[in-house]
Specification:
This protein is 52% helix and 15% strand. It is an alpha/beta fold and 317 residues long. Helix 13 links the parallel strand 8 and strand 9.
């Protein structure tokens, strides 16, 4: 029996023009999301998604609502076309879209939380400038050991933020810490250390300063019991209640993303297809490296949605 997993991307997947073709092709279905989203965030989010440049979209307070909204619209279109997942998961920011899809959060509430989350993360970066970098090749253990070594030697912070795949680990830290880590990694033979298109040192203890403030917003938001299985970032395990979802989102700010472990769980649960629902193809590429036997496809544009639908239909007996 087919078991489809929807995977929702996070920050770093943003692309200029994201969602524009959905707004044109499925205007009657998705216009309400864009109109309401602009009202909720208090600025022309839809316009920035459709016509904003790469630099505008890199601003965390814009990126996070934009990626969330584009993923939400894509999932609505997929559902209208009859594609429904058996399990959902989201990478970092994408966890909010996954919780909406599982009816844990109302999409309007999720967008408000995402907006606040982005603003708080930007504030951290203004006080302690930092970022993230992807390391391709070396093991996560090697990367973690080097992070600890660089932190001891420099007094700056750098640590593993995302366990993405056996060959890709993401580190997060202060700007000087990342610079020292990159130099040390390349000196020790790591050829591919790439800065990510994010605006702060996410998923690190540097985020703890806003945890309590963000927690107050979460506590004021209604969370329901999941209507379908959802896998959490910080545990790579299932979320069984609304209260658990709330606590895990608090933890998510400063804890590592266990994405490789999430995919391994889904493979163990015999998922037969991964569908990345949202802009870009970051998660699709990770899936192909981590679980090459499970078909992975992208559904972030109208054309990609049609291709995914055709592939999923062809897989059915």
């Amino acid at each position: 029996m087919d078991r489809i997993a929807f995977l929702f991307p996070g920050q770093g997947s943003q692309i200029p023009g994201m969602g524009k073709d959905f707004a044109e092709e499925y205007a009657e279905r998705v216009e309400k999301y864009y109109v309401m989203a602009d009202r909720i965030v208090g600025f022309p989010l839809s316009r920035l998604c459709f016509t904003g440049g790469a630099e505008e979209l890199r601003d965390t307070s814009v990126t996070q609502p934009g990626v969330f909204l584009t993923s939400l619209v894509a999932s609505a279109v997929l559902q209208d076309l009859g594609v429904r997942p058996d399990v959902v998961a989201g990478h970092s920011l994408g966890e909010y879209t996954a919780l909406v899809h599982a009816e844990v959060l109302a999409w309007e509430d999720a967008l408000r939380l995402v907006r606040v989350r982005g603003e708080l993360m930007s504030r951290v970066n203004r006080r302690t400038p930092g970022g993230m970098a992807a390391v391709l090749g070396p093991s996560a253990e090697w990367v973690g050991d080097l992070c600890a070594e660089v932190s001891r030697a420099t007094g700056e912070f750098v640590a593993v933020a995302n366990y993405n795949s056996p060959s890709q680990t993401v580190v997060s830290g202060s700007a000087p810490g990342l610079e020292a880590f990159t130099a040390a990694a390349r000196a020790q033979g790591a050829r591919h250390v790439t800065p990510l298109k994010v605006g702060a040192p996410f998923h690190s203890p540097l985020m703890k300063e806003v945890e309590e403030e963000f927690g107050a917003h979460l506590d004021a938001t209604s969370f329901a019991t999941p209507s379908l299985p959802v896998v959490a970032n910080s545990t790579a395990g299932y979320i069984h209640s609304g209260s658990a979802a709330r606590e895990l989102l608090k933890l998510q700010l400063s804890s590592s993303v266990l994405w490789q472990q999430t995919l391994e769980l889904l493979v163990k649960e015999e998922v037969t297809a991964f569908v990345e629902v949202g802009p870009g193809r970051v998660l699709t590429n990770i899936c192909r490296g981590t679980a090459p036997k499970v078909p992975a496809m992208t559904a972030g544009t109208v054309g990609q949605v049609r291709q995914a639908l055709a592939r999923l239909t062809a897989q059915q007996p």
